[in-house]
Amino acid sequence: MHCKDKIQDVDYRDTATLRKFISEKGKIRSRRITGACRRHQSQIATAVKRARELSLLPYVNESAREDGPRGRGRDRDRDRD
């Protein structure tokens, strides 16, 4: 997806390619990690957001959901037992 790859536009339907630009937790990776220029990074972000809206990509990765609550919520659950 870099300028040197001569790709003009990023397609939101190409989920296999877009997954390369998403971290394990589901966040969009930064430009310095992806190596994309400003224009293509903006297109990647827009494509990921559109794919999420259409349920082609998850907002949060499945493994991150299974970890359960973190922080203050975890302490409140312990007090109830």
Principal-axes shape call: elongated
Query: What is the element string, with H for helices and E for strands?
Result: HHHHH
CATH level 1 class label: Few Secondary Structures
CATH topology: 30s Ribosomal Protein S18
Low-confidence stretches: none
The fourth-level CATH homologous superfamily is Ribosomal protein S18
Counting helices, strands and paired strands, the structural category is mainly alpha
Q: What kind of oligomer do you see?
A: single chain
Largest sheet: none
Task: Report the helical percentage.
Answer: 40-55%
* Average pLDDT taken over every residue: 82
SS field, number of helical segments = 5
Per DSSP E runs of 2 or more residues, the count of β-strands stands at 0
Taking Cα atoms only, what radius of gyration do you get, to the nearest Å?
17 Å
What is the number of domains?
A: 1
Q: What percent of residues are in strands?
A: under 5%
What can be said about this structure in brief?
The chain has 5 helices and no strands. With 81 residues, it is an all-alpha fold.
